[in-house]
Amino acid sequence: MSASDELRPDDRRPGDASRRDGVIHPEVLAPTDESERGQDGRRLQHAEGASRPISAGAISPKAPREPQPRGAKIRGDRPIDQGEAAERFLAAPMHQKAHDARLWDLRSKRDTAAFGIPEWEELRELASQIKTHTLANLDRYLEEFEAQAKANGVQVHWAADGAEHNRIVLGLLKDHGAKSLIKSKSMLTEECGFRHYMAGTGIEVIETDLGERIQQLDNEEPSHVVVPAVHKTRFDVAEVFSRTMGTDPENDDAHYLAESQRMHTRPLILEADAGLTGCNFAIAETGTVVTCTNEGNADLSGNVPKLQIHSIGIEKLIPRIEHLGVFLRLLSRSALGSPITQYTSHFRKPRTGSAMHYVLVDNGRSERLGMEEFWTSLKCIRCGACMNTCPVYRRSGGLSYGATYSGPIGLIIDPTFNKRKYSTLPFSSTMNGSCTNVCPVKINIHEQIFAWRKVLAEEHQIPLLKQGMMKAAGQVLSRPATYRAAIGAADSALKVLPRFAVYNPLNTWGKGREMPEAPRQTFHAWYKQNRMAKAGGRTTGGKATGAKTTGGKATGGKTAASRNTEGTK
Amino acid sequence: MSVREATLARIRRNRPAGEHPLPEVPLFAPLVGDDHVAEFGERLKRMGGTLAEANPGGDLFASVRERLDGATVIASAVPEIAGNRDLGAVARPQDLADVDVAIVRAVFGVAETGSVLFTQAELRVNAVAYLAQHLVVLLDPADILVNIQAAYRRPDFARAAYAVLHTGPSATADIEGVLIHGAQGVRSLTVILAPRG
Q1: Chain B partners of A271 at a C-beta cutoff of 8 Å?
Q2: 8 A C-beta contact, residue B187 and residue A63
Q3: In this predicted model, what pLDDT tens digit does every residue of B111-169 receive, in sequence order?
Q4: Mean pLDDT along residues A424-453
Q5: Average pLDDT for B169-196
Q6: Are A210 and B183 in contact (CB under 8 A)?
Q7: Which residue intervals of A176-219 are DSSP H helices?
Q8: DSSP notation for A260-321
Q9: Residues of A with CB below 8 A from B146's CB?
Q10: Contact, A288 vs B115, CB < 8 A?
C-alpha cells in the first residue's frame, strides 16, 4: 500500500470546499503512477491500460499544439468521404502515431491473452454457434426473455426503431418527473441518436464513462466501441476539460484529468433522477441484463437513481446463464487482452422502491436477419478487436467513417442503416482478413465487406470506375483456382504495376503509405513446397514468408492474423 | 399490430435458413493450478486488487488497519467488524456518498480471474460497493471456484435480483492508455481471506 493510496478524507468528501461551486481544485490529486503498479510492484495492464507507456509525443511548451483532426464531413445522405477524413488524420502525425500505437498495443495484448487459452479456437466456435442458434430462434428467445423479465417485475417495452426508443425513454423520464439521467456507455443509444434527441427536452443527459464523457463534452461521437476517446491525446482532453469543467488548461496529466472528471461527475450521479445502461448480454432463461464495464459506472447508473432503464438491442440475447461462461472468457480478452472486465454486472429484478424498465430495440435488426449474406453480422459482441487490428482503422481514426460503427464491423453494418450514405465504406479495407481472424464470434467480416461491394455495385451505389475494378475482381474471385493464380501474380504485380494503378485516387488505402514489399513466395506456394512435399524428405525454409509466424500448433486463424497485419505494420 | 407483434413477425419471416442447433458446452480443463488460493491472489493482483497478507497477530483487519483508522465513515455488512454507518437504516443509496470504507463478504471467488461475487444480499445496499472510496472484501478460501465456467454453473445468478463480479477496483485508461484506479467507483479493492464464522 503506497502513501498515495491512503485515504484523504478531507479532499474526497462530498460537499467539501473543492466542489462547493463546481470549481475543481488543481491540487485535487497529485500526479502519481500508483495505479500503474500492482501490489507486488509489477506494471499493471488490466482494463484498457497500455502494456507500456504510449503517449503522444512530448512537445515543447512553446511549440504549437497539434489540433485534433475532426471526423468525416456529414452532408445529409451524401456518401461519406472516408478517404478525405483519413487524409486529414494522416496529416496529424502526433495523433496518428499515438492512435496507431495504442490500438496495436491492444491487439498485441489480445494475442497474448488468446494464446494463453488452449481452447481459444473452440470457444470462438462455440460462441459463434450459440449466437447463430439464438438468432435463428430469436422470436422464441425474445418471448422467453420478456416473460421472465415481466415475472421478475421488470417492465418491457418494444421499439421498432431508434426514434421510438428515444420516445419511450423520454416518456419514462417524464412519467417519473426526472430532470437528469446518468448513463453508461451504450453503442445502441449512439445508434439511436439518443443524446442529440434529448438535447431539446430540458432533461440533462450525463455520460459517466470517462471516454464517453470526454466525447460528450467535446460534442463528438465516440470513435471506438470500447475506447471512445482513443483518437484524442491528453492535450486534447486537457483542452476539452478546461473549456467545459474549468480545469487547468496547462495540466495534461491523465491522473489529474481523470480525477477532475470524477469529482465533477460524482455530484451529478448523486443528484440524478434516472439511470440508463446498455446491454452486453440478455439472458433469455432468467430475464437478466448483463453489462461488462471497467469503471463501475453502469452499476452506479443501475443502483443509485430510483428509475433504472436498460436499452437492449434484440440481437444481444443468449439462451442461458451458463453461456456467459463462453462469452465472458472471449469478450474482454478480445477487446483489451484482459481476462475479464473489472465489473460484470447482472441486473434481474428492481430494487425495493425502484422501477426497472427494459427497452428492446429492433432498428433494422429483424430485416438484417433476412439478408442471406449479412445476417451473421448480428453475432457481433462489440469487442472492437476487428478495429484494433485493422490497418485502415488504426491510420484513419474511427470518426473518419462518419458512422456510429467504424472499422471493419462498421463497414458491414453501416450500409444496412443507409445504403447511399455508407456506400463507400466497404471500400475502406485492404481485405487482409485480419478482422475475420480475430473476431471472437467468427463473423466472416472481410467476406461480407467484399459481398457489400458487389451489392452496392449492382445497385449502382458506387462510382463507375470502381465498378469496373470490381467486375474484374469478381471474375477472379469467383473461381478459386484463378484466385490462387491471381494472388501468386498479384504480389509480383505490385512490383510491376505502374504507380497510377496502385496509387490511384480510388485506392484510398494506398494513400499515405507505400504498398508492402511483396513476398517472393505466397504462403500457399510455400506450404505446397514445404509441407505437402515433406514426403520427399527435404524442406527449404529459407525465404519462406509464412514460416516465421507459424508458431507450433497455432491455428490457421492466428497465423493468418499475425502474417497479414505484419505486412501492413 | 403492436410493435412487439410486428417485430416478432419480421423475425419469423426473416428466419435464417438451415439447422442451427445449440451446441453442448464441454467442461474445459482449468487453466490454473490446484492451489486456488495462490492462483486467485496472483490474478487479483494482476487486476489491480490487493490481497491481504496473513497476519500472525490475529487481527483479521491488520492489513487495512491504517485505512480503517483514518476513515471517518465505515459501512460494514459483515459481523466480523463493526462500522459506524448502519446499512440497514439507509433510506436512499445517495446517503452512502460519504462512506470511506465499505466491508462486504463475497459469495465466492474465481481463481481464473481473481474475481469476487456479490449479490444484493451481501451488499445490503448495492450502491455501497461503488460509492465508497475503498472496498474491503472478506472471502472464505473454501469458496474459491476454479474458473468462470464453474462460476456460471452456480445457482446464484438465476436467484439474485442483482449479482456482480468485481475484479479489482474501478479502473479506466481512456486517456492515452494510462491506467487509473477509481474512475467512478472504488479506488481500491482489498481481499482478506477469512473463513466464514
Answers
A1: 94
A2: no
A3: 999 999 999 999 999 999 999 999 999 999 999 999 999 999 999 999 999 999 999 99
A4: 96
A5: 96
A6: yes
A7: 187-191, 194-198, 210-217
A8: HHHHHHHHHHHH-SEEEE--SEEETTTTEEEEEESSSHHHHHHHSSSEEEEEEEGGGEES-G
A9: none
A10: no
Q: Which of residues 98-127 of B touch A (CB under 8 A)?
A: 98, 100-101, 112-115, 120, 126-127
Cβ of B130 within 8 Å of Cβ of A237? The answer is no
CB contact under 8 A, A49 and B171: yes
Cβ–Cβ under 8 Å, residues A224 and A408: no
Give the Cα separation of A95 and A236 in Å (integer).
10
Decide if A36 and B179 are in contact by the 8 Å CB cutoff.
yes
- Which residue, among B174, B186, B188, B191, would best test binding to A if mutated, counting the most A CBs under 10 Å from its CB? B174
For A127, the enclosing helix (H) or strand (E) is: helix A120-136
Distances in whole angstroms, Cα of residue A145 to Cα of each of A148, A311, A312, A470: 5, 14, 11, 44
CB-CB contact of A100 with A86 (8 Å): no
Nearest to A321 among B152, B171, B182 (CB): B152
Which amino acid belongs to residue A481?
A: A
Distance CA B179, CA A528 (A): 47
Mean confidence (pLDDT) of chain A: 84
Q: Which residues of B touch A238 (CB under 8 A)?
A: none
For the whole model, what pTM was predicted?
0.85
A468 pLDDT higher than 70: no
Distance (Å, rounded) from C-alpha A147 to C-alpha A141?
10
CA–CA separation, A302 vs A298, rounded Å?
6
Report CA-CA distances (Å) from A298 to A17, B83, B84, B167: 28, 27, 28, 15
Which candidate, A447, A373, A454, places its Cα nearest to that of A408?
A: A447
Q: What residues contact A391, with CB distance under 8 A and at least 6 apart?
A: A430, A432, A434, A509, A565, A568, A569
Distance, in Å, from the CA atom of B95 to the CA atom of A308, rounded to the nearest integer, reads: 18
Please write the tens of the pLDDT for every residue from B68-118: 999 999 999 999 999 999 999 999 999 999 999 999 999 999 999 999 999
